[in-house]
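Ops channel
N.P.: pipeline sanity check, posting one input/output pair.
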């Protein structure tokens, strides 16, 4: 049987609930995965609560990532017993996702896990960590080095922000963390942040060109925050934009781009080609110490997901939420 969180939008209205269904309800795909762990991401929270137009078809099993063991495969690259991870590709939005004990997906969406990462550790990293790695890789590709100066990480207490701090610190960058939870300073410093600033200094409308403060940034917030980040970048700096927690808008000026030559690097983690995904997961295996993730991770069972989704959107959860779908 299939145990899953199912989102419906019919009589009596929009709802998400834990259900048990026949296995033949699984969607089409050439690989079946016995899911061991998933996560609860911001996008999942929007989908489960209905606060954002995430779900494209109903009914839908949410969960934009998963890690587990292949149980059946018609895809030449995978065999039963393979340990795999999936991020993006519209799962949890257009195709049933990871908040279930089984998933049927397309083989080209899957990446074989590095040997030294367990399925639980993969979801401790999750889409947030994978996105953070893509952001770091984008800054590296642009040419940003530790010698260039500070790197700002916004949304630092969130999933992407926390792992971005860890990765940048391990690579030798001096990291400045922006957060609305200044009481979390010891936690952010334990991840590798050398300075912590109040997000309020970035979240309101600001001048189009400001004091040069950072060589680069990873921004998961968007809106006025991203505009102020761009305005405060040093000449030839770059920001990797990977989120929109504050909003989809970008009320910015062209001044930083023209007068300082800064770059805005968009990070699309959903449809990255497989070679980039493999590289990202290989580097995550090299750079992340699983023991260091434990302080930023909480684990819940699948039956706790709906309640936790509301708490996540209300800012009551720090760091990553791993979902043990076997419980």
């Amino acid at each position: 049987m299939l145990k899953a969180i199912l989102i419906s939008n019919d009589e009596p209205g929009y709802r998400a609930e834990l259900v048990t269904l026949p296995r033949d309800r699984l969607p089409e795909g050439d690989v079946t995965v016995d899911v061991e762990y998933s996560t609860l991401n911001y996008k999942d929270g929007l989908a489960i609560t209905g606060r954002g137009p995430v779900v494209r078809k109903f009914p839908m099993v949410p969960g934009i990532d998963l890690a587990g063991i292949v149980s059946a495969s018609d895809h030449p690259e995978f065999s039963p017993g393979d340990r795999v991870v999936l991020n993006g590709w519209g799962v949890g939005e257009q195709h049933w996702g990871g908040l279930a004990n089984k998933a049927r997906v397309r083989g080209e969406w899957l990446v074989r896990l590095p040997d030294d990462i367990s399925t639980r550790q993969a979801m401790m990293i999750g889409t947030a960590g994978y996105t953070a790695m893509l952001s770091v890789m984008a800054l590296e590709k642009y040419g940003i080095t530790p010698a260039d100066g500070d790197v700002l990480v916004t949304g630092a207490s969130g999933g992407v922000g926390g792992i971005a701090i860890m990765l940048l610190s391990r690579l030798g960058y001096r990291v400045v963390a922006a957060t609305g939870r200044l009481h979390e300073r010891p936690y952010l410093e334990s991840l590798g942040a050398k300075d912590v600033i109040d997000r309020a200094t970035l979240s309101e409308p600001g001048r189009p060109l400001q004091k040069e403060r950072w060589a680069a940034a990873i921004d998961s917030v968007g809106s006025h925050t991203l505009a102020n980040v761009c305005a405060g970048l040093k000449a030839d700096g770059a920001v990797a934009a990977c989120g929109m927690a504050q909003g989809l808008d970008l009320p910015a000026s062209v001044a930083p781009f023209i007068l300082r030559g800064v770059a805005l690097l968009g990070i699309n983690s959903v449809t990255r080609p497989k070679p980039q995904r493999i590289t990202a997961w290989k580097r995550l295996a090299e750079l992340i110490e699983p023991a260091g993730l434990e302080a930023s991770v909480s684990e819940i069972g699948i039956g706790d997901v709906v309640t936790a989704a509301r708490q996540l959107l209300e800012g009551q959860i720090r760091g990553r939420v791993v979902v043990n779908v076997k419980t």
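N.P.: looks fine end to end. The chain has nine helices and 15 strands.
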